[in-house]
Design a protein that fits this description.
This protein is mainly α. It is built from two helices and no strands. The longest helix has 56 residues. The radius of gyration is 31 Å and the shape is rod-shaped.
Length: 75
């Protein structure tokens, strides 16, 4: 006896859009929103942070140069 074929498109079209599908859709939309917000926030916060980071690195390089020059002059 052959197995009956199921028309998947018709089966999906006949079913109502239930609470579960609505919940999954809402959660996906929330994830996309939060991911976009994260990207926007990084674009806003990154330039001042990079400026501070570079200036701190420059300070540490300058202080290490002072220490190395002081140690050379001590010998």
């Amino acid at each position: 006896m052959p197995t009956p074929r199921i028309d998947l498109r018709a089966l999906i079209d006949e079913r109502p859009f239930g609470r579960y599908q609505l919940l999954v859709t809402a959660l996906c939309a929330l994830i996309v929103f939060l991911d976009g917000f994260d990207t926007q926030a990084i674009g806003y916060v990154a330039p001042p942070s990079c400026t501070r980071w570079v200036s701190n690195e420059q300070r540490s390089v300058q202080s290490s140069r002072r220490v190395s020059s002081a140690s050379r002059s001590a010998h």
